[in-house]
Specification:
The chain is of the alpha+beta class. It is built from 9 helices and 28 strands. α1 (16-26) crosses α3 (41-54) and α6 (613-624) packs antiparallel against α7.
Length: 698
């Protein structure tokens, strides 16, 4: 152990005998150092000072610490750079402003880790921790974050659950379900809704209404039909809204209930929105093999079937599917095309216009090798919007459109719809999957209010991108996307920017690993802007992205299986991604350039306005070892160089010091045991992080 009397001292304060003692603790001799650093005597002087600074540490792992620095791949090399001159104060200040000031100015999320994990409620019958999943996310007007998902409590049945976080990622204790002593303040379970276990039916959507009530919807299992839509509404404190009873007057829901649409079909929910103007609740998905919709009154959750109050009356009988219930307030309809005579399909997204019309998007024509993007636009009363005709439909036949996509050979190819959002100017963005060469690419269409494709949405990329459609990522499955809201900042550069989320697991040399992929696209939404170009200011957590970044979701506790589901953007450019991490609901927070909202990684660790490996590098190692007299570093993971969620002097500290000493490429990582669950494993990724996030290197 280190004597409490030993203090960290500058190299000049140590006598030659003390320096000799320092070297002996490292297991090295002066001759060995001279041999290593023979090419430049200044390197020996710098090394001697560094060894003197290490001397008071007295930890056995530092025996050979400098040996690892000095002799990395020494055989066959003329010399290894060990010295880096101290920068002048003004140089350090410039470096700080460019590399660290913007990061430091932003508030850190979840105590500087950038990842908020929501505790589980307990264990299930096997005694293992419950595998909770975060599936939907929304942000309140006060900045609090609402997460919806499915959880296991004290029994093996998945339940619908909701959690609320403060803007800094901590659990909001005021969200307690109205209980004096809730199991976990900040998290509530909806006990009478049993969430479905199917992989394709894990959608859970959440929105905040004008009264700050939380509306959540998903697919639930029942005792009769396999799956039904289900919905719940919570008050601001998480308690059930007992005025929200649902459509079954004989069995009031008291805040949560299933929403049956057909007589006996399997029904799967995919999206939820609140209708503009009056806040009515719209649910969309699949009922059997057809597209279906339900609209509920905002007052009590009953079906919106009143013809005297703009109730959802539905299209004409000839457009309805065979399993339509022939009742107002909900409906099942056909989406015919040249490849889909019977009109089968399923919805994936819904959005309300400012005038209360509804645009729903989905996929139809599941026959053979063809699938197409289908769009339906409803008037406020649920009839087809005849003005939604695209470029070809005659008057009187509007409301339903199919996008026919041709490949370079002129043949129809497969496309699927995944999500839809409305821009500030009223046009729509539609996230899609484009199937090409037996794999799926991620894409976005811009659609005008009348159904035509907006040709000024163009990335300038080669086919399959083309005016109106941007194929922004050649790999991975689309999951969700968000449009950054306007902020109070004049000329906000991130306003209306698109943040698109995908699942790129198993690609890019990461077979078997779970990876998210995020792309930013410019989107001024005002003529004559040509929007849809990739925003290369998004460089990601590692600093190596170029408009798209890839990130492993592996963590210290779980190497694989952590997935993400949805994304939401915040005014100013920050964005949040929801998923499950190590069997817990979790939220990642990113800054506009894609950096995780962790604590800072600054070169001037000891805060003396001077930068050197001998002082700052060793100060960081001493801080990681929690030694007496070590400088305090901000809580969080800014100095987590390998990205495994743990600050480790043997790995992160050594990488930091090596980079400060000028080590580059393979020399940066050689001899260091990078953990298998690290998010940054090779010298390219680690070097990029050190350059972009810590300002070290070039």
């Amino acid at each position: 152990m280190v004597s409490a009397a030993l203090q960290f001292r500058a190299p000049s304060e140590l006598s030659p005998s003390a320096r000799t003692l320092a070297l002996s603790q490292l297991g090295l001799s002066h001759n060995a150092i001279r041999l290593c650093c023979v090419s430049n005597p200044h390197k020996f002087v710098a090394y001697r000072g560094l060894a003197s600074a290490i001397a008071p540490i007295g930890f056995t792992f530092l025996n050979g610490f400098m040996l690892a620095l000095c002799f990395t791949h020494f055989a066959g090399r003329r010399s290894v750079q060990l010295y880096r001159p101290l920068r002048r104060f003004w140089q350090a200040l410039v470096c700080f402003v460019l590399a660290g000031a913007a990061v430091q100015a932003a508030a850190n999320f979840a105590n500087g880790t950038g990842l908020a994990q929501i505790p589980n409620l307990g264990t299930h019958v096997s005694g293992q921790r419950s595998a909770d999943e975060g599936l939907g996310i929304a942000v309140q007007s006060d900045g609090k974050i609402v997460v919806a998902g499915r959880c296991i409590g004290s029994n093996p049945t998945y339940r619908f659950c909701v959690s609320r976080l403060n803007a800094d990622g901590t659990l909001d204790a005021s969200f307690n379900g109205g209980l004096a002593s809730p199991p976990i303040p900040g998290k509530v379970v909806i006990p009478n809704l049993s969430a479905s276990l199917g992989v394709l039916i894990r959608a859970a959507k959440v929105v905040i209404d004008s009264s700050d009530r939380i509306v959540v919807a998903s697919t639930c299992e029942t005792t009769t039909i396999a799956n039904r839509f289900c919905v719940a509404r919570l008050l601001a404190n998480g308690a059930p809204d007992t005025s929200f009873d649902g459509p079954d007057a004989a069995n009031p829901g008291n805040g949560s209930f299933v929403v049956p649409i057909t007589a006996g079909n399997n029904e799967i929910l995919y999206d939820l929105t609140l209708q503009k103007i009056d806040g009515r609740i719209v649910l969309v998905g699949e009922c059997g093999v057809f597209s279906c919709i339900a609209r509920l009154r905002a007052t009590d959750g009953t079906f919106d079937d009143n013809s005297n109050d703009f109730g959802f009356l539905k299209p004409s009988a000839g457009s309805r599917a065979p399993n339509d219930p022939e009742l107002n307030g909900r409906g099942v309809w056909r989406q015919p095309s040249a490849f889909n005579v019977d009109g089968r399909g399923g919805l994936r997204g819904v959005v309300s216009t400012g005038e209360g019309k509804l645009l729903v998007v989905g996929t139809c024509a599941f026959t053979g090798s063809i699938s197409q993007i289908c769009m339906t636009k409803f008037n406020r009363d649920g009839t087809f919007d005849d003005d939604f005709r695209g470029e070809s439909l005659p008057i009187g036949n509007g409301g339903r459109l199919v996008i026919n996509t041709l490949n370079s050979g002129g043949f129809v190819v497969l496309e699927e719809a995944f999500a839809v959002r409305q821009q500030a100017d009223g046009r729509f963005l539609l996230q899609c999957g484009y199937f090409r060469n037996s794999s799926i690419s991620q894409c976005l269409y811009r659609i005008n209010s009348g159904g035509t494709i907006a040709l000024n949405w163009s990335s300038g990329l080669p086919f399959p991108s083309e005016p109106g459609r941007v194929v922004y990522n050649a790999v991975g499955n689309p999951l969700d996307f968000a449009i950054t809201p306007l902020s109070n900042q004049p000329g906000d550069p991130n306003a209306n920017r698109v943040i698109a989320l995908g699942d790129c697991s198993g690609v890019g040399g990461n077979s078997g690993a779970t990876r998210i992929c995020v792309t930013a696209l410019r989107n001024g939404t005002a003529a004559p802007n040509i929007d849809g170009t990739i925003d290369n200011t998004l460089i990601g957590p590692n600093g190596d992205g170029n408009g798209t970044f890839f990130q492993s979701t592996e963590t210290a506790a779980s190497f694989t299986g952590n997935v993400v589901r949805g994304v939401v953007a915040i005014p100013g450019g920050d964005f949040l991604i929801v998923g499950n991490c190590d069997a817990q609901m979790c939220v990642y927070k990113y800054r506009p350039d894609g950096a995780l909202a962790t604590s800072s990684c600054l070169q001037d660790v000891d805060g003396d306005n001077r930068i050197s490996a001998a002082s700052d590098g060793l100060a960081l190692i001493r801080a990681m070892l929690q030694l007496p007299g070590a400088p305090a570093i901000a809580p969080g993971l800014g100095y987590d160089i390998d990205g495994n969620g743990v600050l480790n002097a043997r790995v992160d500290g050594l990488l930091f010091v090596r980079a400060m000493l000028g080590f580059r490429d393979a020399n940066l990582t050689n001899g260091i045991n990078i953990p298998s669950n690290a998010r940054r494993k090779n010298f390219d990724q680690i070097g990029s992080y050190l350059r972009s996030r810590c300002g070290i290197g070039n």
